[in-house]
Design a protein that fits this description.
The protein is an alpha/beta fold. It contains 13 helices and eight strands. 48% of the residues lie in helices and 13% in strands. The protein has an eight-stranded parallel beta sheet. It is found in: Cytoplasm.
């Protein structure tokens, strides 16, 4: 089951119009752009989608739209996490998840639970759904780190907990997960600039921000690495590295919306508290995007 999420998943942005309503036409264009350029699956309602600023109704509309427009071309993962365990369990029971291939659920943020609290949180989620579950560890955002022992405890207990998106940036922690994981459990990257070395140590892919804007080169880099063609993968990695750094220079999805706007895929609009890229970042991103056009 974990092979479904091998390769490149893309954490889709949520395009907004000038009035900050959801731009579904741009979302359709983005979905076609990433699928046509080789991504293996879509992630709706991840962090990159500005989910903290979306209403419950908007989240349901976006998920339904992504599933419908995707039209079974690739699997769709739904981001469903938070720091109120009971609320996530309730969402799993009340959202229409027909057409959803898996759930991506982030470590509880702000509350800073203990490892036992983290385990109990994910256990409650695992008991509330039969859908495949991808854990999401991103200490830079959550102020809490799912330690390998905790992630592996959940994975060993529940066969449908099939992967972790590991965005600690800590390669030693990544190695501990790879070395000790059960066979059904995939270790995925959450750090676009580290994917190449992470695949070299045994990770199986990525849930990516950069695959919104640079899907072809990025997925080719991942596929080459997974096939053991590290010379080819390395060339693409260094081709993209500056562009990836620019995506995160002022936070996510500030950079990627700037790039997508330059590619005429969506407007460069974000909801507060996020603001558009500075003039300097926009100029640097334009120069990078122009180099890709050759």
């Amino acid at each position: 089951m974990s092979n479904m999420f091998r390769g490149t998943g893309v954490a889709l942005v949520t395009p907004f119009k000038e009035d900050l309503s959801i731009d579904f036409d741009a979302l359709a264009k983005l979905i076609d752009h990433v699928i046509d350029n080789g991504v293996n699956y879509l992630v709706a309602l991840g962090t990159t989608a500005e989910t903290p600023t979306l209403t419950d109704e908007e989240k349901k509309q976006i998920l339904a739209f992504v599933i419908k427009h995707n039209n079974n071309r690739v699997p769709v993962v739904c981001g469903m996490g938070g720091n109120n365990t009971a609320e996530i369990v309730n969402q799993l029971k009340t959202y229409d998840l027909n057409g959803v291939a898996g759930i991506l659920t982030v470590a509880p943020y702000y509350n800073k639970p203990s490892q036992e609290g983290m385990y109990q949180h994910f256990k409650a989620i695992a008991e509330a759904t039969k859908l495949p579950i991808i854990l999401y560890n991103v200490p830079g955002r959550t102020a809490s780190n799912i330690l390998p022992a905790t992630a592996l405890r959940i994975a060993n207990e529940f066969a449908h907990v099939i992967a972790i998106k590991e965005a600690s940036g800590n390669l030693v922690q990544c190695m501990e997960l790879v070395q000790n994981k059960p066979a059904h459990f995939a270790i995925l990257s959450g750090d676009d600039n580290l994917v190449l070395p992470q695949i070299a140590i045994g990770m199986e892919g990525v849930i990516s921000v950069a695959a919104n804007s640079y899907p072809k080169d990025f997925t080719n880099m991942v596929n080459a690495a997974l096939a053991g063609n590290f010379n080819e993968s390395r060339a693409l990695h260094y081709k993209l590295l500056k562009g990836i750094d620019l995506l995160f220079a002022e936070g996510n999805p500030v950079g990627v919306k700037c790039a997508l706007n330059l590619m005429n895929i969506c407007k460069n609009t974000l909801r507060l508290p996020l603001v558009t890229a500075t003039a300097g970042l926009q100029q640097n991103t334009k120069e990078f995007v122009d180099t890709l056009k050759g």
